[in-house]
Design a protein that fits this description.
Number of strands of chain A: 0
CATH superfamily of the largest domain in chain B: bacillus anthracis domain
Low-confidence stretches of chain A: 1-5, 82-88
CATH topology of the largest domain in chain B: Immunoglobulin-like
Largest sheet of chain A: none
Oligomer: heterodimer
CATH architecture of chain A: Orthogonal Bundle
Number of helices of chain A: 8
Largest sheet of chain B: 11 strands, mixed
Helix content of chain B: 10-25%
Helix content of chain A: over 70%
Order of helices and strands of chain B: HHHHHEEEEEHEEEEEEEEEHHEEEEEEEE
Low-confidence stretches of chain B: 38-66, 150-158
Strand content of chain B: 35-45%
CATH topology of chain A: Rna Polymerase Sigma Factor, Chain: A
Radius of gyration of chain A: 18 Å
Number of domains of chain A: 1
CATH class of chain A: Mainly Alpha
Number of domains of chain B: 3
Largest interface: A-B, 69 and 60 residues
Shape of chain B: globular
CATH class of the largest domain in chain B: Mainly Beta
Chain lengths: 173, 397
């Protein structure tokens, strides 16, 4: 007789999510918070919240979208606290973690510039570009209008383009 | 580059650059331990958080600045609006106060009326924020108005402030607790005496170390209400709330209990320079009407025509358009350019039709200004710029 596997238990579901999404969420949180330890705290908190709300998860959104939404709001909550605003969050190249493999300079440059974007642009950029959300999903996750998402992404594009042009001009000088 | 190409480009760059971030091999275990209420293997307090906790205590201590007008005090805050400094130099002292039956005193400190806006600063003292936390479940049934997952990370935070610490304890997720809060908030708009209210362009208030609250509002005066002086009222709403946390859900019962009105009068400053301009394309017309006074350069760009209606329909029915794959290049807002440089708005309220209210830091030299539309896909269209020209200068009587 063939064994039929029942639905995953909550423990099994969260374990699968952690295995699959821990690393992308860690990058998302790090890019937002500029601090590896805080990013790990935020990721842990994200999965705790996810576990507690597994019953509310509807498969209208992908797991990645759902978790990204929790993660970015966790990061936002952390950055709203008074203490966070009093810690120097400027990011410099030497603060980035040592990459596991060689990185092209323009990739490093683009990452740095995205991390330096003002918070509102950074949220939109990380959700839509890094996490692959649609405008609609990102607007829903951040509780803002689609127009605002489009506006923030446009401003982010402009800032990135200017920064990359400055960088190219500097290198060719 | 379309959205998909942008995603590929950013994902490649960030995934490569951040490939050295180490995943936590014990994360599954930590999450399961945490949600099941065990205490072992909790994350240690990171060094940055220890520093942060010290910093919050220091920042609270440093926040005391006695003897300043409130606009001046607010102007010294972190990321303060640049208009607070000129407001501190131009606003008139009002100094009217009222005390509610429950012991909250609200004082309107300063106000300023220029063109079509009123700015007002205020302070609240007394029993502004009262909180008691109890163990167990609430002593009676409440019709919970809001039930949500709340942010629970309290184990990482401590505070010397007793009220803040109580709230932290309330949210620690380690036991059933309920909390009674009573307080007062100036959330409501500012009203005329006949009950008409003014739209808030800005409403900011912040708690001080001593438990008092200070804040300011920027309110829009409707055209038909403009006058040499205005008598207005700030409303204070006292509320009563009960919150209950049962491990997974945060329940909240919220009730407005009383409103207190504090009237004040403010005289208009008419020392304004008016600027106007317009542009016309095949699909829309835009008209800009701005004023520059003592506080800022502000005004409206009003867009009309065929295109704005399509843009509004697009944003109103975005999902439908996404399904059809149809994209729309619409005006998101307008950018002020002077001598080829963008001047960032200090406050803005664009709408779906491409119109916008915009405010910028005041400037003495008003030559060479133009407003340029910012489109959602094709970005800046210099050829549709609206040159702003000074049309009149009105002196105060």
């Amino acid at each position: 007789m063939k064994a039929v596997k029942g639905p995953d238990s909550p423990d099994e579901r969260i374990e699968k999510m952690v295995i699959q999404y821990q690393t992308p969420l860690l990058r998302l949180c790090y890019a937002y918070l500029h601090d590896a330890e805080l990013a790990r705290d935020a990721v842990q908190e994200t999965f705790i919240k996810a576990y507690r709300n597994l019953d509310k998860y509807r498969e209208t959104a992908s797991e990645r979208t759902w978790l990204s939404r929790i993660a970015i709001n966790t990061c936002k909550d952390m950055s709203r606290t008074g203490w966070f605003r009093h810690v120097d969050r400027n990011i410099t190249p030497d603060m980035l973690p040592e990459p596991a493999k060689p990185v092209e300079p323009e990739d490093r440059e683009l990452t740095m510039e995205i991390m330096k974007l003002p918070a509102k642009m950074r949220e939109a950029a990380l959700l839509c570009w890094l996490q692959g959300m649609t405008y609609n999903e990102a607007a829903d996750a951040l509780g803002i209008s689609l127009q605002a998402i489009g506006n923030r992404l446009n401003r982010a594009r402009k800032k990135l383009r200017e920064a990359m042009e400055r960088s190219e001009a500097y290198e060719s000088a | 580059m379309n959205l998909h190409e942008e995603q590929e480009c950013v994902q490649k760059a960030m995934n490569n650059t951040l490939s050295g971030l180490q995943a936590d091999p014990w994360l599954v275990r930590r999450v399961l331990v945490n949600v099941k209420g065990e205490t072992m293997m909790g994350r240690k307090l990171s060094a940055s958080m220890v520093i942060a906790i010290v910093l919050i205590i220091l920042s609270i201590t440093a926040a005391v600045a006695a003897g300043l007008g409130l606009f001046e005090k607010l102007s010294k805050g972190e990321n303060a609006d640049v208009r607070l400094k000129p407001l501190s130099e131009n606003a008139e002292k009002i100094a009217v106060k009222a005390t509610t039956d429950s012991g909250v005193t609200v004082e309107i400190d300063e106000a300023y009326y220029e063109g079509n806006r009123v700015f007002v600063s205020f302070r609240m003292t007394g029993n502004v924020d009262f909180t008691e936390v109890y163990d167990g479940v609430p002593d009676r049934e409440y019709e919970w108005g809001e039930e949500r997952e709340d942010y629970i990370m309290a184990e990482y935070y401590t505070s010397d402030d007793e009220i803040i610490q109580q709230k932290i304890d309330m949210m620690d997720g380690k036991g059933q607790r309920w909390m009674v809060s009573r307080g007062a908030t100036p959330n409501e708009p500012v009203y005329f005496m006949d009950g008409t209210f003014m739209q808030n362009h800005q409403s900011v208030f912040q708690r001080q170390e001593d438990g008092s609250w200070i804040g300011w509002k920027e309110c829009a005066v409707p055209d038909d209400k403009a006058a040499e002086s205005l008598t207005l009222k700030l409303k204070l709403t006292e509320y009563d709330s009960v919150s209950f946390q049962d491990y997974t859900t945060f329940h909240e019962y919220f009730e407005d209990i009383k409103e207190t009105e504090i009237p004040f009068t403010v005289v208009r400053n008419d020392n304004l320079i008016r600027l106007e301009g317009s542009t016309r394309t095949e699909t829309y017309e835009a008209k800009a009407e701005f004023t520059c006074g003592q506080i800022d350069l502000q005004g409206n760009v009003t867009v009309s025509g065929e295109a704005p209606e399509e843009w509004a329909d697009y944003w109103d029915h975005f999902e439908k358009y996404q399904e059809t794959g149809k994209d729309m290049d619409s005006i998101m807002t307008w950018i002020l350019i002077k001598d080829g440089e963008e001047i960032e708005a200090v406050n803005e309220e664009p709408d779906l039709r491409g119109s916008a209210w915009l405010a910028f830091e005041r400037m003495d030299d008003l030559e060479g200004l133009s407003l340029v539309p910012l489109y959602s896909d094709t970005w800046i269209h210099m050829e549709e710029a609206i040159p702003l020209t000074v049309v009149t200068e009105t002196a105060a009587e």
